[in-house]
Amino acid sequence: MLLVCATGACREAGCGRDEDAVQAEDEAALDLASVAARAADERAEARRVAELAEAQARADAPIVAIDTHVDTTQRMLDDGDDPFSALEGGHLDVPRMRAGGLTAAFFSIYVRPSDYRGEAAWQRALALIGRVREVAEAHPEEASLCTDAPCVREAARDGKIAMLMGVEGAHALGTDDPDLVLERIRALHRLGCRYITITWSVDSPLGHSSSGSNPAAGLTSLGTRAVRLMNELGMIVDISHVSDQTFWDVMETTTRPVLASHSSARSLADHPRNMRDEMIRAVGENGGAVCVNFYTQFIDADYRGRRRAIEFRRRRAFEPLEAQYPNWVDRGQAAFELAQELDPDLDPPTLQTLVDHFEKVVALAGPGGACLGSDFDGVPELPVGLRDVSELGALKDALAARGLPVRPIFGENVLRVLEAQTAPVPSP
Ligand SMILES: [Zn+2]
226 CA distance to ligand 1 centroid (A)? Predict the structure, then answer.
């Protein structure tokens, strides 16, 4: 009889069992093992089926398409325009958003510094916010005023338009008093704004602009406090418009992913408003995203030179447009068409030039790093093939044709950045 010691304890105790018993036990153990293996297989299969179902649900879910910067807000307040009806001219209204497949937009709270200063700037910002809220409330069946990603997804599912708000430039705070600045940032968050751009084309109490008094200067000490407060509140820090130094200072300070709400790539079009390759790469590493600006003169620097030259040389031909088109966006479009007529060699950028910028951002920041920051109604001309938001489908097709990740670029990347603002921060 073969004595088998199955365990160390057994060996020490000198116990043993006969072969048949061992075989029976082994078979039982094998049975148990195969039951366990089958169960594990079944769990894996269930997981695989669930994952497939989830992927299928995602693929079937309406595409969330979010533009992080539209300037339609000005006409909504100043002219009483309601974008839920078709609007005359301009780049965006809800019927055109639906035609182009845009389900969500950050309405820019932009205050022109030459028109509003100090307290008047703050009051103007509040009036713009009030107008966005009023429009959303007037259309409960069609609009959702959103401050988070689940709301934006739900709106897309329900066929509603998600309206979000971002403040363009901290000069809109109307003060440089540190306590009041911080108090007003809190107020903007309470009112539903989910990003603040540190600066616009002018310096702000928070930092220096790419086209301000000293582009070599960066974030101010108040700016550092503001970034920390925004991180704490769950408000995105927007680094469009800032000087390169302000950008790097923000990246040193922030504990959350940042957003460039409307910026293109400087290595493709040399303009200080655009971002250098190393900046775009750093945003990718930070988990943030760069939403590409559609403006012709930001995406093609050579064209910018040609376009300015023709308007300078033939200024008399352009002068009547001033009186003909009181809306400056429409005037811009008319000037764009006139410039093409006057100079057959003007060769304006097309949709493909814009796609080059998306391709560049994806190459530098990864597939999670690019998004849409059109600047609709905030710039006077758009690339050939993308005249307004109703033609956004053409951009989607052009991105897909280049093998670029459409769903992430159109919406998922921005939703991820938005979600990251309130996610727990891992301790260092
Ligand atoms: Zn801007």
Answer: 20
Contact at 8 Å (CB) between 94 and 84? Answer: yes
Whether residues 264 and 369 fall in one domain: yes
Assess if residue 306 is contained within a domain. no
Residue 428 lies in a domain: no
- Give a yes or no: residue 18 inside a domain: yes
* Domain shared by 104 and 16, yes or no: no
* Across 245-251, average pLDDT: 98
**Residue 263 · residue 290 · CB < 8 Å:** yes
- Mind listing the pLDDT tens digit for each residue in 256-282? 999 999 999 999 999 999 999 999 999
- Name the token pair of 288: 């943030």
For residue 9, the enclosing domain spans: 3-48
| Position 327 pLDDT exceeds 90 | no
Q: What is the whole-number distance in angstroms between the Cα of residue 53 and the centre of ligand 1?
A: 41
Quote the number of domains for the chain: 2
Residue 19 has pLDDT above 70, yes or no: no
The verdict on pTM exceeding 0.90 is: no
DSSP letter string, 100-113: HT--EEEEEEE--T
Q: Average pLDDT for residues 179-196, to the nearest whole number?
A: 98
In a domain, 148, yes or no: yes
| Same-domain check for residues 13 and 160 | no
Q: How far does residue 166's CA lie from ligand 1's centre (Å)?
A: 11
Distance 221 CA to ligand 1 centre (A): 23
**Measured on CA atoms in the order 321, 326, 327, 328, is the torsion positive or negative?**
positive
